[in-house]
């Protein structure tokens, strides 16, 4: 809903983060806004990341500030250059550009020095407990944790051990560096959190230079500080980590950014866990990170989504602190709204049934004019060939139809889109009783839908010329999950993978204007939905992905907002 001022101008309400930003600018706390988008390069970005991208880059644009791209690459066992490249491609595809690009690994030397500083001030110590022992002694929400027996080591001993950790004298998992805070804190994150662990893994940028790596909580705030981030925007799961973010900045005596949390995006029928998405890829449940069934930005792009639709969707769902489950139909409605205005219309027959016009002059080819996009007259028209042998959809004919069936049937007429009225006179079947051909007659006086005698035909169907049709494969995508949410469901999430999430149609017929289409081309197959030419296409075989259907139950809801 929008508020209307006295002069009747529409005032779009600002989310709580933008209100904070404006207050900070107004009072002079900041002269320029500096945000950052800090993904970990351990997988491909998904639609949930798009919300954060639009927020961080959008605020920087709106308030004439800057937004950095920073890769949180502190876990070399899971991070790869492939992910770094894909993340950059996705951000640019969404329409954004970073001011500066950084890696957390750029700061490894400084982070190490800060760790030594905390050791010297008695606020960090080397602990010999295993990861399991640390978990066991951390306590619960009702019970305080148990102090490590190594908590009171001397500064000299801790400095020596930490240096030896860095030099590779100890095996993985044998020692950690922990902050000395409060094992009785009601916030478990403040119960002597681990700052560094030993991990012998080749880093995608620093190679084997380091065998100790900082934890996220010891990297995040300090990286923000180095880059002089004004507003560090995180999802709600980091709210309980904010006191630790603040503790490190305060005890190191460094510039202290403000962390603000917002609700992450949860979408119906969608896997939003990067760990689960990785499992789907590695176990072959999908064809890769850019499989059009995946909620990854690369998957959505390949399916035919537009950056404009995704940005519009992120704008509509807004920013707040309340966790909610957003209906996938809202995302699809934003996509339809954009494609309706921009996608050219073409004709394609996915399940062809041959129609022979018995009164058509043999060999005659007539060119009909078709409008490319009725929503945009500037898109012009195209010429499509009409001949005596056509293909129509199998579903557009019934031999014994029910009442109110207005498509083709024996003895009845339909209008061919941009073409003529035709009447079905004869049904041809094979030896098994399957319909293989319809023999029809056309009315030459009805070109373009004209009806000189005033008779009306209720049904209009699409078609393609059999002699000019392009053969194609069409992939029909449906929801990857069978349930709207995986929360509180028993069993493994793989139990809820939709076995019918992909249907491949291999004998489709397309109008010849699509012969020159390149991968990424989006269009509407009239009456069928929106489709995108896939990268698997070859000059000999086009492959189209169904992007979204034409059904739009959200249209009325969209108009209300």
Multimeric organization:
single chain
Number of helices: 13
Number of strands: 27
- Rough shape? elongated
Mean pLDDT: 95
In what range is the share of β-strand residues? Answer: 15-25%
Q: CA-to-CA gap between the ends?
A: 6 Å
**Parts with pLDDT < 50 across at least 5 consecutive residues:** 1-12
Largest β-sheet summary: 7 strands, mixed
Structural class of the helix and strand makeup?
A: alpha/beta
Query: Which strand order do you get reading across the main beta sheet?
Result: 12-25-26-27-23-24-13
Helix content: 25-40%
Roughly how many Å is the radius of gyration? 31 Å
Write up this protein.
It is a single chain. This protein is of the alpha/beta class. Helix content is 25%, strand content 23%. The chain is built from 13 helices and 27 strands. The protein has helices at residues 16-26, 47-62, 81-93, 108-120, 131-137, 155-166, 216-226, 242-252, 274-282, 297-303, 307-317, 328-342, 555-560, and strands at 3-4, 10-11, 34-37, 66-71, 101-103, 124-127, 176-179, 194-198, 212-214, 231-235, 258-262, 345-346, 348-349, 352-357, 366-371, 381-386, 389-393, 413-416, 421-429, 435-443, 460-461, 464-465, 470-477, 502-510, 522-525, 529-533, 542-548. The strands form seven sheets. It has a seven-stranded mixed beta sheet with strand order 12-25-26-27-23-24-13, covered by helices on one side. Strands 21-18-19-20-14-17-22 form a seven-stranded mixed beta sheet, with no helix packed on it. Helix 2 crosses helix 11 (307-317), helix 7 crosses helix 8 (242-252) and helix 11 (307-317) packs across helix 12 (328-342). It is elongated. The termini are close together.
């Amino acid at each position: 809903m929008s508020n209307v001022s006295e002069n009747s101008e529409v005032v779009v309400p600002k989310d709580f983060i933008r209100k904070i930003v404006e207050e900070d600018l107004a009072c002079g706390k900041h002269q320029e806004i500096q945000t950052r988008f800090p993904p970990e390069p351990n997988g491909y970005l998904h639609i949930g990341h798009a919300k954060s991208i639009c927020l961080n880059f959008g605020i920087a644009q709106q308030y004439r500030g800057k937004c950095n791209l920073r890769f949180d690459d502190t876990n070399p066992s899971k991070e790869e250059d492939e992910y770094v490249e894909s993340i950059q491609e996705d951000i640019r595809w969404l329409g954004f550009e970073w001011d500066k690009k950084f890696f957390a690994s750029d700061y490894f030397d400084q982070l190490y020095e800060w760790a030594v500083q905390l050791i010297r001030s008695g606020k960090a110590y080397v602990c010999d407990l295993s990861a399991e022992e640390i978990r066991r002694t951390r306590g619960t929400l009702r019970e305080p944790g148990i102090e490590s027996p190594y908590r009171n080591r001397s500064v000299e001993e801790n400095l020596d051990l930490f240096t030896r950790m860095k030099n590779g004298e100890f095996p993985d998992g044998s020692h950690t560096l922990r902050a000395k805070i409060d094992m009785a804190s009601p916030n478990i994150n403040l119960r002597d959190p681990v700052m560094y662990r030993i991990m012998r893994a080749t880093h995608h940028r620093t190679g084997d230079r380091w065998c100790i790596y900082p934890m996220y909580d010891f990297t995040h705030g300090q990286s923000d500080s180095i880059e002089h981030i004004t507003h560090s925007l995180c999802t709600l799961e980091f709210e309980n980590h904010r006191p630790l973010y603040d503790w490190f900045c305060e005890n190191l005596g460094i510039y202290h950014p403000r962390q603000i949390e917002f609700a992450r995006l949860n979408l119906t029928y969608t896997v939003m866990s990067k760990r689960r998405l990785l499992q789907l890829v590695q176990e072959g449940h999908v064809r890769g990170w850019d499989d059009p069934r995946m909620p990854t930005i690369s998957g959505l792009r390949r399916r035919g989504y537009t950056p404009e639709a995704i940005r519009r969707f992120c704008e509509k769902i807004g920013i707040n602190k309340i966790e909610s489950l957003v209906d996938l139909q809202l995302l699809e409605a934003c996509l339809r709204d954009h494609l309706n205005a921009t996608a050219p219309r073409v004709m394609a027959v996915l399940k062809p049934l041959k129609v022979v016009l018995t009164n058509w002059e043999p060999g005659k080819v007539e060119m009909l004019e078709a409008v490319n996009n009725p929503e945009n007259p500037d898109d012009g028209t195209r010429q499509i060939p009409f001949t005596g042998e056509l293909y129509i959809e199998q579903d557009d004919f019934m031999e014994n139809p029910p009442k109110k069936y207005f498509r083709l049937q024996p003895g009845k007429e339909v209008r061919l889109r941009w073409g003529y009225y035709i009447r079905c006179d004869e049904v041809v079947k094979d030896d098994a009783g399957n319909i293989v051909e319809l023999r029809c007659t056309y009315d030459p006086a009805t070109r373009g839908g004209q009806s000189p005698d005033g008779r009306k035909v209720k049904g209009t169907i699409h078609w393609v010329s059999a002699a000019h049709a392009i053969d194609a494969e069409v992939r029909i995508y449906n929801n990857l999950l069978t349930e709207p949410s995986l929360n509180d469901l028993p069993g493994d999430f793989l139990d809820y993978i939709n076995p019918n999430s992909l249907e491949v149609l291999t004998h489709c017929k397309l109008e010849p204007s699509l012969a020159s289409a390149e991968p990424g081309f989006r269009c509407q197959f009239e009456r069928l939905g929106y489709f995108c030419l896939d990268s698997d296409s070859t000059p000999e075989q086009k492959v189209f992905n169904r992007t979204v259907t034409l059904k739009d139950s959200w249209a009325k809801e969209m108009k209300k907002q």
